[in-house]
Design a protein that fits this description.
This protein is an alpha+beta fold. It has three helices and twelve strands; from the N terminus they run E-E-E-E-E-E-E-H-E-H-E-E-H-E-E. Helices cover 23% and strands 30% of the residues. Strand 3 and strand 4 form a beta hairpin. The chain is globular, with a radius of gyration of 18 Å.
């Protein structure tokens, strides 16, 4: 099951200056505060630390968030494939395609790295993207399902977020049809979830 959480965040002009730095291992460190005495950033574990140096980052068009990482494997397939690996592979392919179209893109993680939810949110909020997409491949079923599905979550009462979620849903639906899975009929469920970045979201699914 492929899952995308979609949020639209009001863009911020690059003229505001750096909003994050790249750390020693190219991890994104959002700026929390700056003063003549130095800069405080959010570390990969979400802890404020003093940081001096590193490549400055400006706001981007899109932030992609590959779910899980590190000790958090996510779901695990019968062949041993982990969700954390699949999420990252999808994010890397999506980034390359978006960059080829002229968009600026950042990933919350570009390798097998553990990031707490608050740090993923801090990265998204700092980079102020036009779109934030979190990528997951859910599991947990106790037996093979005859009606697998795709879910997209979007911000409630935000038409642009709903539109983007709908586009992603339709594209995923079309891409998976050739696999021959039965029962691909769209539906909408009115569940609401708290978002760490931009308010609650509603779920749409095919099952």
């Amino acid at each position: 099951m492929a899952v995308a959480s979609v949020g639209l965040i009001p863009g911020v002009s690059a003229e505001v200056g750096p909003v994050a730095f790249l750390g020693p291992n190219a991890e994104i460190l959002p700026i929390l505060s700056s003063s003549p005495n130095g800069t405080v950033v959010s570390s990969t574990c979400g802890t404020p630390i003093a940081f001096d140096g590193g490549e400055a980052l400006n706001p981007v068009d899109v932030v992609l968030d590959p779910g899980h990482g590190g000790p958090e494997t996510g779901s695990v397939g019968a062949n041993g494939l982990t969700e954390r690996t699949l999420n990252l592979a999808v994010a890397l392919h999506a980034r390359d395609h978006l960059v080829s179209l002229g968009y600026t893109v950042a990933l919350t993680r570009d390798r097998d790295l553990h990031l707490p939810i608050r740090q993923r949110a801090a990265i998204a909020n700092a980079l102020s993207p036009r779109a934030f997409v979190s990528i997951h491949h859910n599991g947990g079923a106790v037996r093979r399902s005859a009606t697998p599905g795709t879910e997209t979550f979007h911000q409630v009462d935000d038409p642009e977020s709903a539109r983007l979620a709908g586009i992603l849903f339709e594209d995923l639906h079309s891409a998976l049809l050739p696999t021959g899975c039965p029962g691909w009929t769209p539906c909408t469920k009115g569940h609401r979830f708290d978002s760490v970045t931009a308010g609650p979201r509603r779920m749409a699914c095919s099952a």
